[in-house]
From TrEMBL:
Annotated family: Belongs to the phosphopentomutase family.
Names of required cofactors: Mn(2+)
Location of the protein in the cell: Cytoplasm
HAMAP family membership: Phosphopentomut (MF_00740)
Pathway the protein takes part in: Carbohydrate degradation; 2-deoxy-D-ribose 1-phosphate degradation; D-glyceraldehyde 3-phosphate and acetaldehyde from 2-deoxy-alpha-D-ribose 1-phosphate: step 1/2
Function, as annotated: Isomerase that catalyzes the conversion of deoxy-ribose 1-phosphate (dRib-1-P) and ribose 1-phosphate (Rib-1-P) to deoxy-ribose 5-phosphate (dRib-5-P) and ribose 5-phosphate (Rib-5-P), respectively.
Protein name: Phosphopentomutase
Keyword Metal-binding: yes
Residues reported to bind Mn(2+) 2: D289, H294, H342
Organism superkingdom: Bacteria
């Protein structure tokens, strides 16, 4: 059947076990969901995700989340084919634009010529300049930044350039202007960076610094048309919740909502579900990644999953017969793993509509693009031919 509304929810970084190419990324043994389950030792309660089949595609069920005897929806996994394991790569691939060209990475910090241009534009010195956890480098250099007005610049294992500054020292609008300028420097050909991220923080001292919800991602513009563009071209409504608008640089998005938190994102989703529209609503919930995965806070990650699951129950209750829900992730970020970077994992694929009569397995999909191909086929739009739709498997 054709669905009037499709709601996609990305549980940012909630992977479901090492991908086939995990060794290439030095991520063998990573398993975000599995290790969270082990940590909670049976106390990870996800009844709504469980009945959708969260554990059913796994060889071994997530501890505390048994395989459902009769799942109410379709379940599976998806394998990434993009060259990186960043949010940009994952989301672009979902919308049928895999990232096939290696972006610029800076394992030893950024080159002097690039930093000199940012310093000259901003009129501020630069400190940091190394791969580091954001919370760690802000704790280390934040007080210095408050005294001097310098910019804290750092990176990670992804193609990102992050700029942190205290909101009382460098106003958010000024930080954004600096990031926009930095974005203009790394669109190729010499340097091609996936994301410039503004990382404002507040607090009186290193023991009380907190990064704020004024984070903003200045992402490389999509290098081709995505499913979102084709939907928009065809008059199909497209709505982005959370960092979706940033990830696609506003391309293909009719209406966007900025999230303060996962629960704020779910409030936005509840609001959109009350609307009468024909189209696709794409939601990203970033707290799993930014608040817990990168900080290797396994307890917080599990609690955030349980909080989401509680809200998911309300989403399921609101769905119409001609609504379709697709829940997935953009990469892994195993909070029990070494380091602080994303992990190359399979991601879950949970698909539900109240109209389904014969739920079952969708297997392991060979690319995230199967998601976008399914959305495109449902709304009968053109595509760039990446991915295989599973629409006709939904009964």
């Amino acid at each position: 059947m054709a669905y009037k509304r499709i709601f996609g929810i990305v549980l940012d970084s909630i992977g479901t076990g090492e991908a086939q190419d995990a060794a290439k990324f030095d991520d063998v043994g990573s398993d975000t969901l599995g290790h969270i389950g082990e940590y909670f030792n049976g106390d990870l309660k996800l009844p709504n995700l469980q009945k959708l089949g969260l554990s059913n595609q796994r060889k071994t069920a997530i501890k505390g989340v048994p395989k459902a005897d009769q799942p109410i929806g379709y379940y599976g996994n998806m394998q990434e084919v993009s060259v990186g394991k960043d949010s940009m790569d994952g989301h672009w691939e979902m919308m049928q634009l895999p990232v096939k060209t290696e972006l610029s990475f800076f394992p030893h910090g950024f080159p002097a010529d690039l930093l000199d241009k940012i310093a000259k534009f901003s009129g501020r010195k630069i400190i940091g300049n190394r791969p580091e956890s954001g919370t760690k480098i802000i704790a280390e250099l934040g007080e210095q930044q408050m005294k001097t007005g310098d910019l804290i610049i750092y990176t990670s294992g992804d193609s990102v350039l992050q700029i942190a500054a205290h909101e009382d020292v460098i106003p958010v609008d000024e930080l954004y202007r600096i990031c926009e300028y930095a974005r203009s420097l790394v669109n190729g050909p010499e340097y091609t960076v996936g994301r410039i991220i503004a990382r404002p923080y507040v607090g009186p001292d290193k023991d009380h610094f907190t990064r704020t919800a004024n984070r903003h991602d200045f992402t490389l513009k999509p290098t081709g048309k995505t499913t979102l563009n084709y939907l928009q071209d065809n008059g199909v409504t497209t709505i982005g919740i959370g960092k979706i608008n940033d990830i696609f640089s506003g391309e293909g998005i009719d209406q966007g909502y900025h999230n303060e938190s996962n629960m704020d994102g779910m409030d936005h989703l509840d609001h959109v579900m009350q609307k009468d529209f024909t189209g696709f609503c794409f939601t990203n919930l970033v707290d799993f990644d930014a608040m817990y995965g990168h900080r290797r806070n396994i307890k917080g990650d599990g609690q955030a999953l349980m909080d989401f699951d509680h809200r998911l129950g309300h989403v399921l209750a609101q769905m119409h017969e001609d609504d379709l829900l697709i829940i997935t992730a953009d990469h892994g970020n195993d909070p029990s793993y070494r380091g602080t970077d994303h992990t190359r994992e399979l991601v879950p694929l949970l698909v539900y509509s109240p109209s389904m009569k014969n739920p079952g397995s969708l297997g392991t999909r060979s690319t995230f693009s199967d998601f976008g191909a399914t959305v495109a086929e449902n709304f009968k739009t053109n595509t760039n031919n990446w991915g295989t739709s599973f629409l006709n498997q939904l009964k």
